[in-house]
C-alpha cells in the first residue's frame, strides 16, 4: 500500500511518542508501584462486620505507627460510616497531621459507591462484595471534601465526609 | 456511471421515507434530551429547583439515554442506510427489514422512556447493578439493541448482494465503512445484550435472586467504549469520503481510509478496562494491558488527521494559493456543510488529548468520575460527533425530501455552529476545570459539608448553566432548520456529496477486503484481553447482590 512520504514521517513520529508515553506509564506502574487501586479481595457484603477491618469498633481513624494511619469505612446509601467518637456521635471528619501516610480501606454494604478525597489521588470505586484500599501521603494542609462520585441513588449528593490535614 | 450524476439522483420515495423516519426520531430526541440537559445545568447552578417534585436523577437518566443511546443510534442507522442505498442499493426485502429495525428500536425507546419518566428507572444510562429499575426499562433497551442488529444484518446483506453482482470489483468505500462500523457494533453490543438479557431481565423480574455486579459492569464496559467509536465512525465516514467532495476535491487515499477503519475495528473493543481502572476486583496488570491496547487507537487517529488536512491542502492549492498556509483561506468557510464538521474536527484535538489522559493508568486517578469526564465527552461526542452529524443533516435531509438548502438556511446553519461552539466552550471548559478541582459528575446540587473547596466548584457550575443556556438556544435553532429542510424549504435537488478517487490513484490492496482476516484478528484480540481476567473475576466472585429498589426512589 502506498503511503505518502510525509505521512510516513508523521506516523513514525506519532508511534514513537506513543511508545515513549506507554513506557513512562508502565515504568511508573510497575517499578514505582503507582497502580490504581486493585485488591482482588472479596467479602460478604451482607455481613461486612465479620471482617476485622469493618467491625464497628475498628471503623474510623487509627494510628498504626508514627505518622502512619489507617481509616476503615463502611459505605452504604447514603452514608460513610467512620465509626463514633467518645460521645457516641457519628464521626464526619478525619483529622491527620500534614505529611502522614493514610491507608483508606472501604467496602459497601449495598450498592456501588465512589470514594474520592477531592483534590488528591484517593479515588476509588466501592463495590458490594469487594474491598477497596488506597494509601496516600497527605502532603498539603487543608480541608478536603470526601465525595461519593459514583451514582448510588437519589440521595447520592448527600453522601460526603471530610479529611482535615493540619 | 458518473459519480456526480449519481450524487444528484434523488432516492425513490419509499426509500427516502425509511431514511427520513430515522431522522425524525433523531431530531425529536435532540430537543427532548437537550431540554433535560438545560434543566440539569440550572439545578446544579443552585439557583433553581425542579417543579412538580421531578427528581434530578430522572432528568439525568433521560438526558443520557435519549442523547447517548437514542439520538446517536437512530441518526447512525438512518445515515448508514442512506449511504448503503446510494452506493450499493436496497431491495424491497431489505427495505422491509429496515422498517422492522426502525419499529423495534422505536418501541424499545418508548418503553424505556416511559419507564424513566414515571420514576421507575432512575439508574442513569449506565444502569449499574445492583440498583434495580423496572423490568420494562431493560426490556426496552434490549429491543433497541436487537432492532439495531436487524439493521446491521440488513447492511451486511446489502453489500453481500452487491459483491455477488459485481464479481472482482472492490466494494464502494462508504459501504465498506458502514459494514465495519456495524460489525464493531454487533460484536461490542453482544456484551451489553448478554448482561441485559441473561443478568438484568431475569433478576429484575425476580426469576433469579442475585446478580454478579462486577461481571455486569465488565460486560457493560466491554460495550461502553466501542459505543463511542460507533458514534465517531459515521463522522469519520463524512470526513474521509464526503467533506473532500464538498470542498471540491478528491478522496485522499482509498486504501488509507480502509486501513484506518480496520484498525479502529480491531482496537476499539479489547479496551473496556480503562473505564474500570479504579475498580477493586480487576488485576492491575490486566488493566495496564488494556491501557496499552486502548492507546493503539492513536494510530488510526493520526492517519485520519493527516489525510484530512492533506485533502484540505491539496484542494486549496489546486484552487490557487499564495503561501505555506494560504490554501487554508481558500476553504469554503461560508458553506455550513463544511464549516460545522470542521469545527467538530478542531474540537477533537483537545477532546482526544483529554481521552489519552482519562485512559492512562495513573492520571485517571485524579479525574475518574469527576465532572472533567463530562467535559471530555461534551467535547468529543457533543461537539465533534454532533456538529459533524449536523453537517451531514444540512445536505442529507433536503436530499431525502427533495428540497434545497437555501442561502438563508445555510447562513442560519453557520450561526447555529457558532452558537454551539461558544456554548460548548464555556460549558466544557468549566467542567474540565471543576473536575480538576475534584467536583464530582452525576450529582445534584449539593454544598456537601461546605468549606472553601466546595465554594470553588459552585462558580464553575454557574458557568455551566450559562453555557448550557447558549447550547439550548443552538438546539432550538437546529430544530427550526431541520423542520424547514424537512417540510418548508423550496423544492429542488440537493447533492449527496460522495468524493471520487483520483484517476491515477494506486490500486487498493485486496487484503483490505478480506473479512475473515480482520474479524479473526479482532476476535483474537478480544479473547486475549478478556479471557483470563474474566475467569479471574468469575472465580473470585463475592456473593451475588439482591435488587436494590429504594435507593432510586422505587417503593
UniProtKB/TrEMBL annotation, chain A:
Entry superkingdom: Bacteria
Cytochrome oxidase subunit II copper A binding domain: residues covered: 17-166
Record SUPFAM superfamilies: Cupredoxins
Gene3D superfamilies linked: Cupredoxins - blue copper proteins (2.60.40.420), Rhodopsin 7-helix transmembrane proteins (1.20.1070.10)
Localization: Cell envelope
Alphabetical list of PROSITE patterns matching this protein: COX2 (PS00078), COX2_CUA (PS50857)
A Pfam family it matches: COX2
Keywords from the UniProt entry: Copper, Membrane, Metal-binding, Transmembrane, Transmembrane helix
Keyword Heme found: no
Catalytic reaction equation(s): 4 Fe(II)-[cytochrome c] + O2 + 8 H(+)(in) = 4 Fe(III)-[cytochrome c] + 2 H2O + 4 H(+)(out)
Annotated TM spans: 9-31
PANTHER family (UniProt xref): CYTOCHROME C OXIDASE SUBUNIT II, NITROUS-OXIDE REDUCTASE
Function, in words: Subunits I and II form the functional core of the enzyme complex. Electrons originating in cytochrome c are transferred via heme a and Cu(A) to the binuclear center formed by heme a3 and Cu(B).
Name of the protein in its database record: Cytochrome aa3 subunit 2
Species: Sporosarcina jeotgali
UniProtKB/TrEMBL annotation, chain B:
Keywords from the named record: Electron transport, Heme, Iron, Membrane, Metal-binding, Respiratory chain, Transmembrane, Transmembrane helix, Transport
Localization per Swiss-Prot or TrEMBL: Membrane
Positions of the Cytochrome oxidase subunit I profile domain: 1-487
A Pfam short name: COX1
Domain of life: Bacteria
Membrane topology designation: Multi-pass membrane protein
Transmembrane segments: 21-42, 54-79, 100-119, 131-152, 173-201, 221-243, 255-273, 288-315, 336-357, 377-397, 418-437, 457-483, 515-535
Family: Belongs to the heme-copper respiratory oxidase family.
PANTHER family for this protein: CYTOCHROME C OXIDASE SUBUNIT 1, CYTOCHROME C OXIDASE SUBUNIT I
UniProt protein name: B(O/a)3-type cytochrome-c oxidase subunit 1
Amino acid at each position: 500500500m502506498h503511503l505518502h512520504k510525509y505521512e510516513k514521517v508523521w506516523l513514525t513520529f506519532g508511534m514513537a511518542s506513543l511508545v515513549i508515553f506507554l513506557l513512562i506509564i508502565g515504568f511508573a506502574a510497575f517499578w514505582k508501584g503507582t497502580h490504581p487501586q486493585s485488591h482482588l479481595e472479596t467479602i460478604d457484603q451482607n455481613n461486612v462486620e465479620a471482617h476485622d477491618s469493618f467491625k464497628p469498633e475498628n471503623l474510623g481513624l487509627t494510628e498504626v505507627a508514627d505518622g502512619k494511619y489507617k481509616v476503615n469505612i463502611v459505605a452504604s446509601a447514603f452514608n460513610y460510616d467512620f465509626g463514633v467518637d467518645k460521645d457516641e456521635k457519628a464521626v464526619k471528619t478525619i483529622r491527620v497531621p500534614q505529611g502522614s501516610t493514610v491507608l483508606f480501606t472501604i467496602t459497601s454494604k449495598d450498592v456501588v459507591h465512589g470514594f474520592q478525597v477531592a483534590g488528591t489521588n484517593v479515588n476509588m470505586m466501592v463495590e458490594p462484595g469487594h474491598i477497596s484500599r488506597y494509601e496516600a501521603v497527605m502532603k498539603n494542609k487543608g480541608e478536603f471534601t470526601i465525595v461519593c462520585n459514583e451514582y448510588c441513588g437519589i440521595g447520592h449528593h448527600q453522601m460526603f465526609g471530610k479529611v482535615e490535614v493540619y | 456511471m458518473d459519480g456526480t450524476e449519481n450524487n444528484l439522483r434523488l432516492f425513490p420515495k419509499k426509500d427516502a421515507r425509511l431514511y427520513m423516519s430515522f431522522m425524525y426520531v433523531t431530531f425529536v430526541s435532540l430537543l427532548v434530551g437537550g431540554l433535560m440537559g438545560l434543566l440539569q445545568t440550572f439545578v446544579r447552578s443552585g439557583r433553581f429547583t425542579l417543579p412538580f417534585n421531578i427528581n434530578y436523577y430522572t432528568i439525568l437518566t433521560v438526558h443520557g439515554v435519549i442523547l447517548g443511546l437514542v439520538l446517536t443510534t437512530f441518526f447512525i442507522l438512518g445515515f448508514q442506510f442512506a449511504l448503503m442505498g446510494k452506493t450499493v442499493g436496497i431491495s424491497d426485502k431489505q427495505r422491509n427489514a429496515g422498517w422492522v429495525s426502525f419499529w423495534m428500536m422505536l418501541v424499545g425507546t418508548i418503553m424505556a422512556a416511559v419507564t424513566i419518566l414515571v420514576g421507575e428507572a432512575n439508574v442513569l444510562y449506565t444502569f449499574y447493578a445492583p440498583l434495580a429499575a423496572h423490568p420494562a426499562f431493560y426490556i426496552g433497551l434490549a429491543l433497541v439493541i436487537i432492532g439495531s442488529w436487524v439493521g446491521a444484518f440488513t447492511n451486511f446483506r446489502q453489500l453481500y448482494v452487491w459483491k455477488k453482482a459485481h464479481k472482482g470489483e472492490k466494494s464502494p468505500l462508504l459501504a465498506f465503512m458502514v459494514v465495519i462500523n456495524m460489525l464493531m457494533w454487533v460484536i461490542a453490543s453482544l456484551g451489553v445484550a448478554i448482561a441485559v438479557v441473561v443478568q438484568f431481565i431475569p433478576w429484575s423480574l425476580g426469576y433469579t435472586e442475585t446478580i454478579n455486579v462486577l461481571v455486569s459492569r465488565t460486560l457493560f464496559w466491554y460495550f461502553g467504549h466501542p459505543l463511542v467509536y460507533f458514534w465517531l465512525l459515521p463522522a469519520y465516514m463524512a470526513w474521509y469520503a464526503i467533506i473532500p467532495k464538498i470542498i471540491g476535491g478528491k478522496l485522499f487515499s482509498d486504501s488509507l481510509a480502509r486501513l484506518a477503519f480496520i484498525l479502529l475495528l480491531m482496537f476499539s473493543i479489547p479496551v473496556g478496562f480503562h473505564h474500570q481502572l479504579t475498580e477493586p476486583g480487576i488485576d492491575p496488570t490486566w488493566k495496564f494491558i488494556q491501557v496499552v491496547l486502548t492507546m493503539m487507537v492513536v494510530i488510526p487517529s493520526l492517519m485520519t488527521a493527516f489525510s484530512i488536512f492533506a485533502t484540505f491542502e491539496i484542494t486549496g492549492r489546486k484552487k490557487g494559493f499564495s503561501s505555506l498556509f494560504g490554501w487554508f483561506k481558500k476553504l469554503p468557510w461560508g458553506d455550513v456543510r463544511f464549516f460545522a464538521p470542521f469545527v467538530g474536527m478542531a474540537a477533537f484535538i483537545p477532546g482526544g488529548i483529554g481521552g489519552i489522559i482519562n485512559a492512562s493508568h495513573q492520571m485517571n486517578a485524579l479525574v475518574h468520575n469527576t465532572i472533567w469526564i463530562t467535559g471530555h465527552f461534551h467535547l468529543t461526542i457533543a461537539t465533534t460527533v454532533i456538529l459533524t452529524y449536523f453537517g451531514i443533516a444540512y445536505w442529507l435531509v433536503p436530499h431525502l425530501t427533495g428540497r434545497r438548502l437555501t442561502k438563508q438556511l445555510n447562513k442560519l446553519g453557520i450561526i447555529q455552529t457558532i452558537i454551539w461552539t461558544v456554548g460548548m466552550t464555556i460549558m466544557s471548559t468549566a467542567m474540565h476545570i471543576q473536575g480538576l478541582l475534584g467536583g464530582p459528575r452525576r450529582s445534584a446540587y449539593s454544598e456537601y459539608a461546605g468549606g472553601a473547596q466546595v465554594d470553588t466548584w459552585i462558580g464553575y457550575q454557574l458557568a455551566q448553566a450559562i453555557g448550557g443556556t447558549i447550547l439550548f438556544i443552538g438546539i432550538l435553532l437546529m430544530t427550526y432548520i431541520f423542520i424547514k429542510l424537512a417540510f418548508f424549504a423550496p423544492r429542488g435537488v440537493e447533492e449527496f456529496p460522495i468524493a471520487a478517487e483520483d484517476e491515477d490513484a494506486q490500486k487498493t490492496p485486496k487484503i483490505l477486503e478480506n473479512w475473515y482476516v480482520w474479524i479473526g484478528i479482532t476476535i483474537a484480540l478480544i479473547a486475549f484481553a478478556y479471557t483470563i481476567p474474566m475467569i479471574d473475576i468469575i472465580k473470585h466472585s463475592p456473593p451475588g447482590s439482591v435488587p436494590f429498589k429504594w435507593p432510586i426512589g422505587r417503593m
